[in-house]
Amino acid sequence: MPLANRMQRSLQYSPEGPGLQIIDQTLLPHQLRVVSLRTLDDFCTAISSMQVRGAPLIGVTAAYGLALSLAADASDAALGDAIERLLETRPTAINLAWALERVRAEVVDVAPARRAGVALAAAQQLAADDIAVCQRIGEHGLTALRGLPALAAGRTLQIMTHCNAGWLAAIEWGTALAPIYAAHADGIPVHVWVSETRPRNQGLHLTSWELEQAGIAHTVIADNAAGHLLQSGRVDACIVGSDRTVANGDVCNKIGTYMKALAASAHAIPFYVALPVSTIDWACATGADIPIEERHGDEVREVSGIDASGREADVRLTTASAVAYNPAFDVTPAALVTALITECGLVLPTQLAQSKQALLGAG
């Protein structure tokens, strides 16, 4: 998604540049700042602090981090240490482990002197693959949107999202927003209900900003308003992303996804999950087996924004001693998901295991 005279993708690498350039997403929407990651410490901090976030982007960023760390030390010990440190940054998104394993497999039998170059080529290929995969997700998702009754009735499509699964969460296009971008590009009238996604407010800060850049009509809502909109018939479909989908079709995504899925099911609203096949953890049997990241309570107790004078400020919402519980993700059972939108097409989540061979073969 192009920004005039700015980053054309969520990350960029140039051999002549100072490391990997990323958009610091913790500063959006108030400030668009590009920062460079050079060292393994830089990459670990960027992922854990959510300067980069979103399952596909985390994976590709970690791949570049491994490649650049091998440029400094390509020994077997350094390779193992770098992978271990990167894996510790975010435990829930499976793309992190998937991407690191892809790079490790490419370099493990290569002479240390060649490892950095081989790893860099693998990271660049992962980035290129992500762009193509997300574009296909958008095409398949657009087919699903074309089947909604609203279009036949001549109405604007009303889509609800949660968190951010646009190009900021991938390299280009994104996952959940890819069908929306495809619909908009095809001239289909679409309006997006953007839930704030407390406590990090990725919908409020990132999805709204993305859609504004693209000129797509949208309205920001408090998370607690989602059920009311679904109940009152003002939503035609929900589309969310996934940080990890497991073998039985259960979907792990940003906290608050499960509540929207319950409300959508109660009111017969299609609930789609858009994800690349790489986000499926075939080794994990059910959603109950997924490690759920718990983040610092200050993300609940505090909120960041711009004050009346235009300065960035953190404001505490509670007493300093208030106890806060901050799980970053929840699990939506497969039975609540209408379909998984993958680069291979739509898949029924309850039939995911039966589709494994076809999905992996297509990938």
From TrEMBL:
The pathway this protein participates in, as annotated, is: Amino-acid biosynthesis; L-methionine biosynthesis via salvage pathway; L-methionine from S-methyl-5-thio-alpha-D-ribose 1-phosphate: step 1/6
Please name the catalytic residues of this protein. Answer: D243
Matching entries from InterPro entries are given as:
IF-2B-related, IF-M1Pi, IF_2B-like_C, Initiation_fac_2B_a/b/d, M1Pi_N, NagB/RpiA_transferase-like
Q: Name one GO molecular function term.
A: S-methyl-5-thioribose-1-phosphate isomerase activity
**Catalytic activity from the UniProt record:** 5-(methylsulfanyl)-alpha-D-ribose 1-phosphate = 5-(methylsulfanyl)-D-ribulose 1-phosphate
In which domain of life is the source organism classified? Bacteria
Indicate which residues the UniProt annotation says bind substrate: R53, G54, A55, R90, Q202, N253, K254
Enzyme Commission number(s) of this protein: 5.3.1.23
Q: Where is this site: Transition state stabilizer?
A: C163
Keywords, sorted A to Z: Amino-acid biosynthesis, Isomerase, Methionine biosynthesis
Query: One matching Pfam family, short form?
Result: IF-2B
Q: Does the keyword Isomerase apply?
A: yes
Function recorded in the entry: Catalyzes the interconversion of methylthioribose-1-phosphate (MTR-1-P) into methylthioribulose-1-phosphate (MTRu-1-P).
- Family statement: Belongs to the EIF-2B alpha/beta/delta subunits family. MtnA subfamily.
Q: What is this protein called?
A: Methylthioribose-1-phosphate isomerase
**What is the protein's species of origin?**
Candidatus Litorirhabdus singularis
Question: What's the name of its gene?
Answer: mtnA
